[in-house]
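User: I'm writing a short methods note and want a consistent example. For 2,3,4,5-tetrahydropyridine-2,6-dicarboxylate N-succinyltransferase, I'll paste the sequence; you return only the structure tokens, no commentary, since I'll be parsing the reply automatically.
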Amino acid sequence: MALQQIIEQAWENRDLLKEHHTIEAVRAVIEELDKGRLRVAEPVGDDWKVNEWVKKAVLMYFPIQAMKTIEVGPFEFHDKIALKSNYAQLGVRVVPHAVARYGAYLAKGVIMMPSYVNIGAYVDEGTMVDTWATVGSCAQVGKHVHLSGGVGLGGVLEPVQAAPTIIEDGAFIGSRSILVEGCRIGKEAVIGAGVTITGSSRIIDVTGSEPKEYRGYVPPRAVVIPGSYTKKFPAGEFQVPCALIIGQRKESTDLKTSLNDALRENAVAV
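Assistant:
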């Protein structure tokens, strides 16, 4: 609570960022994020709570940090934020050229193929961040999630009340999917390749006799593919993108199922 009070006061009066105790408080919050003891958002029952004051600390971390050169073997970077380190101690596998910034949390058993995890993100145990996948600032990724090649999880810092992108435990995210603007993917859901979901995207369940619509939320164990629907414009009717729920992940499906297997179970060509 003491940290939160200092952060809130500095957010309202940026002159306080010149004071030593405020600078140390901001850095303490980033350290807590880095170690996973604080989160930008956390599950509360079946919902999620956004800790706005933690996001404020992340935003205020940038102006108090000086630019510096970071040398990693023959590679050179010039930035305000250090890279994560001590991966062996953390129990995290990091394949060259994977990069995670200090202030991002990687739990034991995480595997990072050549990929990127930004400050404020939380990646829980056993999750695979596959080749060229990106986990944006403050994105929340659960246990045993598979982020396939080229997946993009959007980052969010402002506005501070905005929810981050949330991927719950056991979800499988297909290649080149784009999940941004505070969308939420439920536990063990399967997102097909190339699906784009924002916080306001139409997600239409077509498995029943009548369509059922969600906005920016995929329910647990749903199998989702790209779709489209007809929308009227002044110039005429055109197809606009949406996402379609075409089935449910079966109990017999292994938690590490391939995307193709999950889609074939629902009679969708892949």
